[in-house]
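Good morning,

Both structures are done.
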Amino acid sequence: MKQPLKFSELVAVGLMLFALFFGAGNMIFPPALGQGAGSDIWIALFGFIVSGVGLPLLGVIVIALRGGDLNELAGHIHPIFALVFGSIIYLCLGVFVSVPRTATVAYEMAVAPFLSESLANQSMLLVAFSFMYFILTFYLALNPSKLIDRIGKLLTPILLSIIVIIVIKALMTPMGEFGEATEAYASPLFKGFIDGYFTLDGLAALVFGNVVIVSLRERGITNQKSIAKITIFAAFIAAAGLLVVYVALAFLGASSVSLGMGANGGVILTNVVNHLFGNVGLMLLGVAIACACLTTSVGIVAACGTFFSTRVFPNASYKQVVLVFCMAAFFVANIGLTQLNAMALPILIAIYPIGIVLIMLSLVEHYVRVPVSVYVCGMIGAFFISIFDAVKSANFSIGKAESLLANIPLFDVGMGWLVPAIIGMIIGYMLSVMKKTA
């Protein structure tokens, strides 16, 4: 029987999970939140931490307790739902959002700042960079059993060290006072919560939890209870790392108003680091971004390869699926970051509430039996409202429906799906009781 992991190995697993979570979006969204929220930063940051740290933590815990399989987790509701919802999550992460974004952000923050403006805007340079980027992603993702050594023990400490250096310098030489909250943060708590969506970690937790479990099994650990304990331990390490880094990056953003309001988190970070360190700082930032992007890219592609080669296309090999995902992500990445985010936003707004309902009810299910009708009705309630939010985010009119939906609690702050989801769960429970007594 495989001997228990040493404490240093447990920490390495946690660092690997942290590195998988902490990608391009995680690096750029907290500074934008900090600058936008201004004096209300701590309220907004609390909302961000709930969705950006709390949900991923619960997601990994649920996966660990339920055996590490998203298909099994969603299959509890219905096999077709499991296949469709699982495929949407993996496609969103691997093709339409996360992985292409890692390549584009890595280029724009680690390469473009060191080029002339005319040269940086040459599309062929992005093509060449992303081509090499995905060759490296493909190579690293071919053997997921080595993810712990390659990511947890090497790239993550580099990333954390660079962030620590930047924050310490910012504390030693303060940039200025916090500004006033912008109009977007009129409701800082809920705005911060929704900002946490765009890290994608709430959904990614249903994927990354399985990456950890597969890695542990590859290392010879087969006892399910041991796997669950190690995975949950790793989840808390990753969550603690995310919490500390988010607070630090949000602080950098909030204290940088004197440098000018940045169009996005990437610009804000670039301004901060350039102010504190000059060109050397920009190089440090570029290394940090490259590490964060690459680790996330490798983890997601590896998870996509496992899912699609076993659940969707069983006749395809893991290597073939990984190759296809790298090729698809390469083409999508060259659309451009702005267009890519605009394309992905409606999809995320539509499916995120479904993921939240699934995570929360699955956690309850571990202790108390939850009827399938509660899952189904709760998700229907959430999706019915979130689909309207998705249509609005795509700049399409929803006509008279908007005035009706405005009467739903929290709809004006982007959380209108919450009450219908709860009502749906109650209806689902009543249906299950009626079915038993019939």
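Second structure follows.
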Amino acid sequence: MSLTEQLLQKKQEGAAKIPKEIYAQMTKATQDLVDNHISAKAPKKGDTLLNFSLPNSQKETISLSNILSKGKAVISFYRGGWCPYCNLELQALNNILPQLKELNTSLVAITPETPDNSLTTSEKNNIEFDILTDFDNSYAKELNLAFELSDEIKTIYNNFNLNIEKHNGNTDYELPIPATFVVDTNGVILYAYTPEDYTTRLDPEVILEVLNK
């Protein structure tokens, strides 16, 4: 089953399990992000991706410039290990690591979660690539990828016992859209996927197709 199919299945399961009124509020919040065209200001194909220097789960600093000195790169943003869609994406990306290595391409994921929480996510999903912490979504903001959760969604998440403050180590209630960028050794974006809808992600098969061209 492809990642796209897994995500659709997860979405259908959520729609069946979550009370209709709450699910409608969640759907509306996502549609509001789409209507506000957040991705319109995000980096596009042909742009040069800004450099970053961020800590991994071992608290070692990783920079984009260092990554690109070794080859191409796939940079994927995700919300947090508490998000089931994110975990499915991380697992799917992990599965294509052998192919990426053959294509001389590195893979890193970026999240606003603290290093300790990203380490938990990495261990839970048996991730073999670096997960980097973007404290306060600073880098995501530079790329125009970050947004603040609506009051309705904050309440829903709190009722789900989902403590975003604890996961991110701040009180901002901000998250990145689940963007993925494929970049060449000069940092030029070969492919940009910047959906406002957190239930959709770039399928790894597309990543491999772009790199194989």
